[in-house]
Amino acid sequence: MIGHSHQGRFRAVLPPDRLSRYSNRNCPLPHRLLLVRKGVPALFVCASIESFSGLPRKEIFPMLVDLEFSSVELPIHEEGMGWVKPSEVLANLEGACNVCRETNRLTVAAVSVDSTAVGDLYYEQFAACCKLAKALKVVPLIVPAAELGTPFNAEIERLRELVRVAAFEGCLVAIKTQIGCMTEDPSTATVLCDNVKGLGLSLDPSHYVAGPWQGRDITKVIEYVFHVRLRDSTKSEFNVRVGQGEIDYGKLISQLSHAGYDRALAIDMPPLEDQDHRAELRKLRLLLESLL
Fold this sequence. Notes:
TIM Barrel; 10 strands; globular; alpha/beta
């Protein structure tokens, strides 16, 4: 069985009251087994490397160790902040695996994949990234949703192919909930998942707090969540100091736990001007861990 997360032994647990829900869900049953290690909560906090685009690479992992994080989300992006590029993964899978294993003993909990390729090359690069995720023992791959205006059927076809490719390597595909994309509307996000068997969401509640659909109840998306990204936000500011926004972490964690979510809560919080980024990261980590 494929697992991610902390070092140590895991045992698969499927409570009887969850059996019918999992058997009726889009996601194949083996991928939704709850991973538990004795004495360790199923939910855990990790850090998204995308939060540190302005920091030298060699400083990122030592800083996260110092801040007492135990796991990370790695970006595999062709442009912007990327630990390796999808094109590099396709060209040299072994080399990419070696680069992604050099994490100062931090566990890779998820990978974010964003390729600029088109046509068959796009899927070839994604397939290589799935092989990389399998080598790292990572289950969820986070991908961007199509921009607004994309034909619905075209997006369904793309997502179905991504899910098919990922399933071959024992991975899951989670599309981002994101302003300016088809998933900025929670209803559309769930419709996409309903039309693509095995597809899930990478839930970022800030996009529903600060976005055009702010104020909408997002309870409907919870059961589709494969990954979570967090920071604090208001209706007018996407990223604010921890505690000054409107994200109800306690309610969200309770909803996720009730739905059987057993994966990472990734802190994706870029630096704020004139604020201590390290202090804000530590504050949110401690807050989230106190709620688990």
